[in-house]
Amino acid sequence: MSDEEPPHGEGPFEQAGQCFCGAIKFQISGKISKSVYCHCKACCRKAGMTPVHLVIARPNEAFKVTSGEEHVQIVKGYGSMEHYICRKCGGPIKQHPKGASFVATFPTTFQIEDGKSCLLPDKYKPELHLNYENRHYDWNDNLPKFAAFPPNGLVDNQGNPIEN
Fold first, then answer.
1. pLDDT at 6
2. What would the pLDDT profile of 37-57 be if each residue is shown by its tens digit?
3. Residue 7 — pLDDT band, cuts 50, 70, 90?
4. Which of 116, 96, 112 has its CA nearest to residue 104?
5. How confident is the model at residue 72 (pLDDT cuts 50, 70, 90)?
6. DSSP-assigned letters across all residues of 87-141
7. How far apart are the first and last CA of the chain?
8. pTM for the whole structure
């Protein structure tokens, strides 16, 4: 995810989540802008994996820490990127460019388990790839891929531009 804003989308949602150790609990009440695989270096190097699955919500104020605020640490990333993590376990809770109108959250932190399954509800499943130009390898799925951000720069699985 770069300093650019992702495209606007629709879809109100409410979701509870927490860091790995449970010291920080949060609630998101907003609109889903997009659910994406992000291949940018800011996301991937911080997470230690590629791509990073993000659910992007609007507005930024949709994200509220409900307990454990004292454990929240802000880590400076690339450019104006800020990563919010737990001081105790190091688990991520959110990220965004400083001053952005959106917040990027991690579905892996959502409390969706029902004792039988950890499958994501459809509304959280990735719908496209962002910053595909930074991928480590080609993805052979049917999701749209954008060299950077939509609506321009649509590419195929090998990263070749697709003419509209």
1. 43
2. 999 988 888 888 889 999 999
3. very low
4. 96
5. very high
6. TTT--EEEEEETT-S-EEE-GGGB----SS--PPPGGGS--EEESGGG-SS---S
7. 24
8. 0.86
Which helix (H) or strand (E) is 76 found in, with range? strand 72-76
CB within 8 Å of 100: residues ≥ 6 apart = 3, 5, 60
Residue 41 gets which letter from DSSP? H
> 152: helix, coil or strand?
coil
Tokens at residue 122, please?
Answer: 């459809």
Q: Could you check whether the bond before residue 151 is cis, i.e. omega within 30 degrees of 0? A: yes
The residues, any chain, with a CB within 8 Å of residue 102's CB and separated by 6 or more, are 5, 6, 33, 56, 57, 58, 59, 60, 96
